[in-house]
């Protein structure tokens, strides 16, 4: 397996929200993110050392509108641009105004050829002006994003064969858990075979297992639907809890995750297609689990 690009970490997700105020209140008052800034119908929310982790945009319809990944340095960004250009993906350098708004030095934009999702690869992100205090929940980071895709084979070709993401585990023809190599987290992206291109869930990694239990009781008290868990995933070993945001998107809190060394990591496992893969404790998901908003094409 070749890795043409070196990734530092998952940077952010962009969600479009029909009731922006309701979504901001949910991610602030129920999930525990803080409001970093707002301007022109966009709210920048944070839960880590970065200046933002989740971007909420007011819109007529809900959707996953973009995902950003930070690269290791300027040379990697130039390599990524040349590599994507050679593959025919027509990347474009982000404008100065875009870079200023996103608080990065440089960035390129490219569309995922399977879903049309706008991808942002960037470097030189500004430091947050203050520490994230994690009032409700001690969140460590935005952990991963998971998408339902109409062609798992084509998505694998783009993310793994072309971008160099590494497969940590897979269920043949059903799901793949991918890490943005050489980042050690078991996955920062997962892909599931689906009938439509939609958001499956967004994950926030917490620093204390008590945050899982506290969140469960907080969600129940506020009548927020819990759609899966608490439980423990077999692939990543994470303890999890899933609940729905105001637009029906599954949101996950997880504690713990398998880590991979840059060199000498174990091979990807071929897992069976059975319920115990998703939860070795035996809980069953609600039918609404993973039935999230459409993925918005970059030109929409």
In short:
The protein is of the alpha/beta class and 300 residues long. 20% of the residues lie in helices and 36% in strands. It has six helices and 17 strands.
Features:
eight-stranded mixed sheet; alpha/beta
Could you characterize what this model shows?
The protein is α/β, with parallel strands linked by helices. Helices cover 20% and strands 36% of the residues. The chain contains six helices and 17 strands. It has helices at residues 20-31, 74-86, 96-102, 152-162, 210-221, 275-278; strands at 7-17, 34-39, 42-46, 54-58, 63-71, 92-93, 106-111, 118-123, 139-149, 166-171, 175-179, 189-193, 198-206, 226-232, 239-244, 250-255, 269-270. The protein has a nine-stranded mixed beta sheet with strand order 14-15-16-13-9-12-11-10-17, covered by helices on one side. An eight-stranded mixed beta sheet has the order 2-3-4-1-5-8-7-6. Strand 15 (239-244) and strand 16 form a beta hairpin. The protein starts with 6 loop residues before the first strand and ends in a 22-residue tail after the last helix. The model has no long low-confidence stretch (mean pLDDT 96).
